[in-house]
Every structure is written in C-alpha cells, then in structure tokens.
Amino acid sequence: MSHTSPASYLIWTVMTGLLGAFLLFHLWSFDRFKCLRWNSAYSGAFKRIMTYSYLITVPLIFAYAMGNMVIKYREGFITHPVLGVIPKPYLLWEQSARDSIFPLMMLFSIGWSLEMVTHLEELCFWLFLVNSGSGQQNWFQSLYFKTWIVGSVLAVTYMPIVTSLTRSDPLKSEAFTFLAGSLGSLSLTLWFTPILFTFPSFLNNLRAEGVDTATIVRLTKFSELNTIRVVFRFLFTVPLLILGVDGVREHSHVNESMLWTDFLVVVAGFGCGISSGITLVIFFPRSIEGEIAAKDAAKERKRSRTT
C-alpha cells in the first residue's frame, strides 16, 4: 500500500486494462458475446456461472489497481529523515483517500476469491479428466465437481472475511489479505503441478485408444499452455506471499524497502495478467462435454476390443 510507489500500481492498471481489452476481443472473436447470454443455447448454467465469475474478476482487480494508482500519484512522496524519499504513508493521506482503503481492498479480495473459483474448477476438471475411470464419466456427479462446490464456497467466504476482520489496521489488512489469497492460490497451483507430469501419459493412452487427431492436438495445446500458466501463477502468488508473510510479522523488512516492494508487486502484476490471459484462452475454447465425450469414446473402444 503506502510502501509501494505509484508506478507499481500503474503497471498493475496497465496489465489488467490490457487483460480486460483482450477479454472483450476474445469473447467477440469467440462467438460475438453470445456466451454471455443467460439463455444461450451454447452452454449450460455451470458454464455461464464460470463465465460470469471470470468476467467479474477482471474489472474488480482493475478497479483496485487504478484506485490505488490515482491515490498514490495524488498523495506523492515525502522526505523521511532516515529512509529518505518514500511514498507518503497512508496516515498522512487525505481523509477521502484513507476512506477508500477498505473498499479498494475488499474489491481486490472478492476478485481474488473469484479467480480462485476459476482455478479450482480447472484443477478439479483436469483431475477428473485424467483420473476418472470407465465407471465414472459424469463430471457433474463426480467427487471432483462436489469438491469444486465446497472449495468455491470457502474461497468466496474466507477472503472477504479476512479483509473485513482486519480492516482496523489497513497495513495488517493488506498483509493478511495477501497472505490468505496467496496461500490459497499457491496451494491450487502446487496441486495442479502433478497434472503437468501425468498429462503426457494420458495423451499417449488416448492415442493408443484411437481418439481422433483433432482432440489430441487440442489437448496437447492445452497441456503446453497449462505449463506456461503454472509458471506465471507462481510469479503471481509467491511475491504476494512474501509481502504477506513479512507484513504480518512484528518487524517488517521487505515491506520497508520500496525497491523490494515495487519489484515483488510488479512481478505479481505480470504473473497475474499473463496467467489470467492464458486462462481465458484455455477456458473459452474448451468444451467440457467434448473432452469427456472423447474420453468416453476411447473407453468404449477399449471395452469393445476386450469383449
């Protein structure tokens, strides 16, 4: 917050703004925004819920970044007798700027929780796709789908609660929000990592079972994009985890250095923007029904050869 320079939030604003522009362009190119219609025949209620939750995430994070950018450029810097020139601490901000701290942090908290909903859905779905047996082919009746429901409720609940309970101290609120969000997102990223190593053997099994080439090519592309995305998710979560852990400690060391706070915030901004853009590319062309049908067809061929 008041530790970081205005330029760091400017970068976040630019990154999320570009992500929003790419989101609109991609949806227009995808189906001319037809997927946004609630009564769209293209997708069911689950697909629409995932679409809307992802659409809400981007403007929330953009509003958080832009709001802090405007405040920090308006408040400027001060000369500290020991630390030198530093961004003005929030205690010296105008009242209107101090009043906006909690609303902006809550926007960020809600946006991050909705992003975790998307990440958890992807994790559970890919685990279902790779691990489901011949007797368990319905995604909506699987344990993975039920896990997603429970995890999503927890994500959209605990993040705003953490932010709200610590609102009396804005610095602690920011630190605990970063800590809670980064721990959740980092856990999902770590759980996703084994899929990257098991997916090649899954593709080899599909090839051996005679799945069509178009499906194999599409899943191969998703596997490559997932690998890149996981790297940038680490770049998003680890820097904010460092800032969060340092912020909740009695004596902050990283947060007292504008160099390190700017560096970590900028890296997190690039990680968030790029990984979210890849998520957009993976999610909207993805047909859950098509991929499960491909696996069903492979299982059916395998059963027919053994009978």
Your description of this structure?
With 307 residues, the chain is mainly α. The protein has a single domain (6-306), classed as Rhopdopsin 7-helix transmembrane proteins (Up-down Bundle), CATH 1.20.1070.10. 77% of the residues lie in helices and 3% in strands. The protein has nine helices and two strands, in the order H-H-E-E-H-H-H-H-H-H-H. Strands 1-2 form a two-stranded antiparallel sheet. Helix 1 (6-31) packs antiparallel against helix 2 (45-75), helix 4 packs antiparallel against helix 5 (143-165) and helix 7 runs antiparallel to helix 8 (258-283). The relative contact order is 0.13. The model is unreliable at 286-292 (pLDDT under 50). Keywords: Membrane, Transmembrane, Transmembrane helix. The chain crosses the membrane at residues 6-28, 49-67, 101-131, 143-163, 175-197, 230-248, 263-284.
User: What is the helix content?
Assistant: over 70%
Identify the CATH homologous superfamily: Rhodopsin 7-helix transmembrane proteins
Return the CATH architecture. Answer: Up-down Bundle
Distance between the termini: 65 Å
Tell me the major beta sheet: 2 strands, antiparallel
Structural class: mainly alpha
Number of domain units: 1
Provide the CATH top-level class.
Mainly Alpha
β-strand percent reads under 5%
The number of helical segments is 9
Question: Rg to the nearest angstrom?
Answer: 22 Å
| Side-by-side strand order of the widest sheet | 1-2
| Strand element count | 2
Return residue spans where pLDDT drops below 50 for at least 5 consecutive residues: 286-292
